[in-house]
Specification:
This protein is α+β, with helices and mostly antiparallel strands and 178 residues long. The protein has helices spanning 38-44, 92-100, 133-143, 169-175, and strands spanning 10-17, 20-26, 45-49, 55-67, 73-78, 82-85, 88-91, 105-112, 119-125, 152-156.
Amino acid sequence: PIGYPCAHTQLRIDAAVCGKGELLAATPAMMRGYWARPDLDAIHFVEAADDAGVPRRFYRTGDIVRQGEDGLLYFSGRADRQIKVRGVRVELDEVELALAAHPSVSEAAVVPTPDGLSLASFVVLKPRASVTSRDLIDHASRLLSPHAVPRSVTVLAEFPRTGTDKIDRTVLRERAIA
C-alpha cells in the first residue's frame, strides 16, 4: 500500500485494466510544466475532469496502482523502467545506454539487485572484444550519477530471451548478485 491522497490533491487512475492503471495527480503545488519542453509536457500531463467535473491538468506519475474498496492505493509497478535506488530515481534505460556506449559492448541490460540497494548489469560483447567488468564500471561512472552506476557487470555470451525475443529480465534478476 502507498496510502491515501494528501489534502488538496486529486488523483485519478488512468486506463484502468483489471482495476489497475497509471496514477494521475493534480495539486496546487504541482509544477506547471517542463522548462521550454512542450514535448515533455505533452507526454507527462493530461487534461481530465476534477472531482467537481471541471477540466484540470493532471501529472502522469508513472506509478501503476489499484485502489482498494476503502480508497487505499496499492502500488503495482511502473509504466516505465524507472526505479528507486536508495531513495534516488534511476532510469534503467539510461544506465543501459551508457554501458552500450562502450565500444566493446554489443548489448546491455540492467536490473536492481535482490536487496534493491544497487544495480546489477549484464552485457554481451562485440565479436573479438575484450574488456573487464572494472573497465565497464569505470566507463559508466564517467557518464552517470554515482547512484546509477551498477555495482556489478557480468559478461554473457548471449542474453536469455523471451518467446518474443526480448531480453528476459526476470532471468537476469535471478542471476543478479546483491
